[in-house]
Amino acid sequence: MMQNSNKQIAFGTIMSYLSIVISCVGAIVVTPFIVKCLGDSSYGVYRIIVSLIAYMSILNFGFGSSAVRYISEFRVKNQKEKEGEFLTIIKYMNFFAICICVIVGVIIYSFIGDIFSSSLTLEEIDLAKELFKILIIGVIVSVVNDIYASIINAYEQFIFVKSIDVIRNILKIVLVFMILSFNSSAVFLTMIDLALNVFVLLSNMYYVRFKLKIVIAFRLPNLKTDFVQIHCPSNTISSDLQPEYTTNRRQFYGSKAKNTDRR
Predict the structure, then answer these.
(1) Fewest C-beta in 10 Å: which of 60, 164, 195, 222?
(2) Could you tell me which of 11, 8, 20 has the C-alpha nearest to residue 166?
(3) Long-range contacts of range 203-208, CB-CB < 8 Å, 24 or more positions apart?
(4) What is each CA distance from 32 to 25, 38, 208, in whole angstroms?
(5) What is the mean pLDDT of the chain?
(6) CA torsion through residues 150, 154, 156, 157, sign
(7) Nearest-angstrom CA–CA distance, 95 and 143
């Protein structure tokens, strides 16, 4: 198992650097082509909306990094039941994040015309709204994907994760050149991003379900037991350490009482 873990880390690191190189080279090659196809106006609107959407990435509330930590802990201790309970809770928290994302997206969409009324023309504002609708769906897909990516990372399947990143970057370069050569529209450019996000989500869902054999149960979490049983950050003493803590506490107060009687 240790050898396999080292292999995953080594090849995962290589694939990670390869993904970065492809992404950088792709940006250098593809960006001038996109600007040429879209024109300065449409590309400017595209970049504005992409930058606006980037701020909404905080709406996942860091569930992914927390999930990796606790799933890894349950996996090491072979606590499958607690892992399943934790995944259920994370699933509903993920749903809550999606609802927040939709609400914020609707509010921003309603005020796009007012926000950019002094800097964009009416046609550019209409384009901005179209792009925003597509990209906000992409954000929702990314939030859903967050939990599946966390499970795969927690199970140290780094080769798969980084391979998907490499494939995604290569596909983006190929699709941009193919599609924009026939239809130079910023809407199609955002559709490429959305399609790639869906591809990553479906790949991760398949891997979690059929390779890792993990099924996330859809049930209402028991707030009185689930959050206590699972090692939440607020718990200073885990259930595994509770008996030892109780024994030490009794020994401490017992010795203290004996010392008092001697005095």
Answers:
(1) 222
(2) 20
(3) 203/164, 204/145, 204/148, 204/149, 204/152, 204/164, 205/148, 207/148, 207/152, 207/157, 207/160, 208/148, 208/151, 208/152
(4) 12, 10, 38
(5) 81
(6) negative
(7) 9
Structure tokens at 40: 């300065």
5-9, 150-154, 200-204, 205-209 — which is least confidently predicted?
5-9
| Statement: the pTM of the whole predicted model exceeds 0.85 | no
> Dihedral of the CA atoms 178, 181, 187, 188 (nearest 10)?
-20
Residue type, 130: E
pLDDT digits (tens, 9 = 90+) for 113-164: 898 988 889 999 999 999 999 999 999 999 889 889 989 988 989 899 999 9
Residue length, the chain?
263
Q: Tell me the average pLDDT across 44-56.
A: 89
For residue 57, give the 3-state DSSP assignment.
Answer: helix
The Cα–Cα gap between 201 and 153 comes to 14
